[in-house]
Amino acid sequence: MKIDRRVVLNFEWVLPIFVLSICAIGLVNLYSAGHNLHNSIINPPYMKQIYWIMLGTGLMILAFSVDYHVFVRYGYLIYGFSILLLLAVFLYGHITNGSQRWLVVLGFSFQPSELVKLTMIIALTKFIDEHKAQDGYTLGSLLIPFCIVLIPSLLILKQPDLGTALFLMILFFSIVLFVGVRKQTLAVLAGTGIFLLPLLWIFMKDYQKERLLTFLNPELDPLGSGYHIIQSMIAVGSGGITGKGFLKGTQSQLKFLPEQQTDFVFSVFAEEWGFLGGMILIVLFIALILWGFRIGRRARDLPGLLIAYGASISIFWAMFINIGMVLGLLPVVGIPLPFLSYGGSSLVVLMISAGLMMNVSMRRFVLQS
Q1: Tens-place pLDDT, residues 220-253
Q2: DSSP H or E run through 67
């Protein structure tokens, strides 16, 4: 294989600039969210996030350097490895707040369900590339792809983590609709989904039912299940147009806002930087996502297109769900805000995804020998 010198001249620099810019905003925001903790703990969250960004950057470079066709070729093995990690969670997983979702390796906690979001995209890419359907996929031809998403979803539901399981389903249907399904198949899938919705309620945990009822009316339990969303909406609303200023957000600095370094980081940001700051952040996200779509559109083959589209749409849905959640427009489901929420699992996997998108962009100029 020869690499054309145009690869160097056309290095994909726009995407990492978007990614690292949002990461930088996230660090500033995490510093503020944990400001009162800095003197009480040795290694505050924003410092740990720096370590994760450094690790993520290294893995992004690795993902960029290895031809993405190699990842696709071994897509089922990579996917299988992530499933084994999900199974390992039930044997060796660390329990936090009643949920068993994390593996502890060398002192670092890692959430395998975050890795599955990427490995599922790679496995679906391999299947779709090997089983192209000119007139759209039928219900029967979607059986294997559906199993690819169903297996990890059921394991993640067992943890329990309803939000991530639903996220995988949304991601799956986004990819399937993108590649095309027959109208009859689409009608059957839509009808089945509507039919199964009531059954979902039966299998939901009590706290998950409370979250859904609280979404419909937060005032039902303002000091319990409704507390998170009420405090979040107060924080966002009190930011006004220009915000209260850095380190001056009362909801966050006085610790009224729960989970302000993870699920509700956007509330902290909106309170301090206001509507204008929030819009600038959203515009950055949209620019990153659209650039990912552009990379996919210019990809040299179907696997490149699907990897770029899958990674981009994954970022979109995570952003959309998280911001909708903190604004009270969607139920609280525990989906982190990409590149901003504290936590290494999500951040590292997202940066690997960015590296794969850069990979697709660069490989347009690779000459096969």
Answers
A1: 666 666 777 888 888 898 889 999 999 888 887 7
A2: none
Question: Using one digit for the tens of pLDDT, what is the confidence trace for 64-117?
Answer: 889 999 999 999 999 999 999 999 998 888 777 667 888 887 777 889 999 999
Model pTM score: 0.92
| Nearest CA-CA partner of 259 in 318, 164, 343 | 343
Question: 367 has which bridge partners?
Answer: 2
Longest pairwise C-alpha distance within the chain:
66
User: In 3D, which of 250, 230, 226 has the Cα closest to residue 240?
Assistant: 250
Question: Which residues make beta-bridge pairs with 2?
Answer: 367
Are 324 and 330 spatial neighbours (Cβ–Cβ below 8 Å)?
Answer: yes
Residues 347 and 338: their CA atoms lie apart, in Å, by 7
| Cβ neighbours, 10 Å, residue 139 | 15
Q: Of the candidates 155, 128, 132, which has an alpha carbon nearest to the alpha carbon of residue 144?
A: 128
Contact 271, 278 (CB under 8 A): no
